[in-house]
Design a protein that fits this description.
Shape: globular
Number of domains: 2
Structural class: alpha/beta
Strand content: 5-15%
Helix content: 40-55%
Radius of gyration: 19 Å
Order of helices and strands: HEEEEHEHEHHEHEHEEHEHEHHHHH
Distance between the termini: 35 Å
Largest sheet: 6 strands, mixed
Oligomer: single chain
CATH class of the largest domain: Alpha Beta
Number of helices: 14
Length: 354
C-alpha cells in the first residue's frame, strides 16, 4: 500500500504511529476528517499478520467513523486507533497509560473509546493520562447494548422494505458473532421479536452463553453464509462479504453490527444486482457512536437510546436515496454522508482544539 496515495484519495488528515519501548505498545491513531468536529472512534486491539494489515484496518475504520457521524447527524469527525497485540495476553497498565499519553498529545483532535479487544476498564486506565476518552465506568460505559439496539431498529427498516412489515417475528436470522453486540442483538431478536436465530462464533464460550440463555441454534463458522435464512447479520470482523462468500449467501437482507462488511465496493454492486438488500454498516451500527457521543454533553441513557432508535429512519432514508438515484445502498449512504460534510465544510474548516 502506498499510504500517502491512499490518504490523498480518501482525504485523510493524519496517521500517527506510536511506540513505547517500556510497555511494548505499538499503536496507530488515524484521524480521517474533522470538518464536523473532533474525531471520535474506538481503540481496537488485535493480532495482525502484518503491520500493513493494521495500517489498512485503521484507515478504513477511521473513514467509516466520519461517515457514521455524518449520517447520524452528530457534530463529530472520524477517527480510530488500533493496537497491535493479543488482547488476551499483552495488556498492561503501562501500555494503556502510554497509549493515553499519546491520545492526550493530540490535544482533543481525537477522542477514544472501546472497540474489539478492549474494555471499559482498559479505558479507565487510559483516562488516567488523557481527558479525551469516553465509555468509561460510571459514564456511558459499554456501548455494545446501544449498538445492538440500533442494529435491531435498522434491521426492522430493512424487513419492512424486503418483506412488507417491520416485524421480525418468525423470521430466520443468522447472526455471525455472539460477542458484545451479537449477544445483545440476539436478545432483542429472540425476546422482543420472537425470531428464529442461528448463531456462530469462533469462541465456544460465547456460543454456549447464547444457547443457554436464548436456546438459539448454532452452526460452525464456515456454515453461516450458506444458511437458508431471511436475514444475515454479521457482527464480528469485517470484509465477510467477499468473492468467496458472495456465492453462498441465500439471505434477502444483510444487516448487522460489524464494520466494513464489504471487502470491496464491487461486492455492494453485486448484492444490488442479486436483489439482496444491504444495510450499510456505518449507518446501521452507529448506536455505539451515539452512546459515547452522548457522554460528551452529560450522559443520559434514555436520550442515547431514543437517538439510536432513529437508525430506523436513517436506514429508510438510505433505501429511499438508493431507489431515487438507482444506486446500491452503500453508495446511497456515502452520498448522504458526503452531502452533510460538504455543506458543513463551507461553514467551518477542520477542527482545531481550543
Amino acid at each position: 500500500m502506498k499510504i500517502f496515495d491512499y490518504m490523498e484519495k480518501y482525504d485523510f488528515e493524519q496517521l500517527v504511529f506510536n511506540y513505547d519501548k517500556t510497555s511494548g505498545l505499538k499503536a496507530l491513531i488515524c484521524i480521517h476528517n474533522t470538518v464536523l468536529g473532533p474525531a471520535l472512534g474506538g481503540t481496537r486491539m488485535w493480532v495482525y499478520d502484518k503491520e500493513e494489515d493494521a495500517i489498512e484496518d485503521v484507515l478504513r475504520l477511521a473513514r467509516g467513523m466520519t461517515y457514521k457521524a455524518a449520517v447520524t447527524g452528530l457534530n463529530l469527525g472520524g477517527g480510530k486507533a488500533v493496537i497491535i497485540g493479543d488482547p488476551k495476553k499483552e495488556k498492561s497498565e503501562g501500555m494503556w497509560r502510554a497509549f493515553g499519553r499519546f491520545v492526550q498529545s493530540l490535544n482533543g483532535r481525537y477522542y477514544t473509546a472501546i472497540d474489539m479487544g478492549t474494555t471499559i476498564y482498559d479505558m479507565e486506565i487510559v483516562a488516567q493520562e488523557t481527558d479525551f476518552v469516553t465509555g468509561i465506568p460510571g459514564a456511558s460505559g459499554d456501548p455494545s447494548p446501544v449498538t445492538a439496539y440500533g442494529v435491531w431498529h435498522g434491521m426492522q427498516a430493512c424487513a419492512e422494505e424486503a418483506f412488507g412489515s417491520r416485524s421480525l417475528k418468525g423470521k430466520k436470522i443468522a447472526v455471525q458473532g455472539a460477542g458484545n453486540v451479537g449477544y445483545y442483538l440476539i436478545r432483542h431478536l429472540v425476546e422482543d421479536e420472537g425470531a428464529e436465530v442461528i448463531a456462530t462464533d469462533i469462541d465456544e464460550n460465547k456460543l454456549n452463553k447464547v444457547v443457554d440463555e436464548f436456546a438459539v441454534k448454532v452452526v460452525k463458522p464456515e456454515e453461516i453464509y450458506s444458511l437458508d435464512v431471511d436475514i444475515f447479520a454479521p457482527c464480528a470482523l469485517g470484509a465477510v462479504i467477499n468473492d468467496k462468500t458472495m456465492e453462498q449467501i441465500k439471505a434477502k437482507v444483510i444487516a448487522g453490527g460489524a464494520n466494513n462488511v464489504l471487502e470491496a465496493e464491487k461486492h455492494g454492486e453485486i448484492l444490488a444486482e442479486k436483489g439482496i438488500l444491504y444495510a450499510p454498516d456505518y449507518v446501521i451500527n452507529s448506536g455505539g457512536l451515539i452512546n459515547v457521543a452522548d457522554e460528551l454533553k452529560g450522559y443520559d441513557r434514555e436520550r442515547a437510546l431514543r437517538t439510536a432508535s432513529g437508525i430506523y429512519n436513517n436506514v429508510k432514508q438510505v433505501i429511499e436515496i438508493a431507489r431515487r438515484d438507482n444506486v446500491p445502498t452503500y453508495k446511497a449512504a456515502d452520498r448522504l454522508a458526503e452531502e452533510r460534510i460538504e455543506k458543513m465544510g463551507r461553514i467551518q474548516s477542520n477542527f482545531i482544539p481550543g
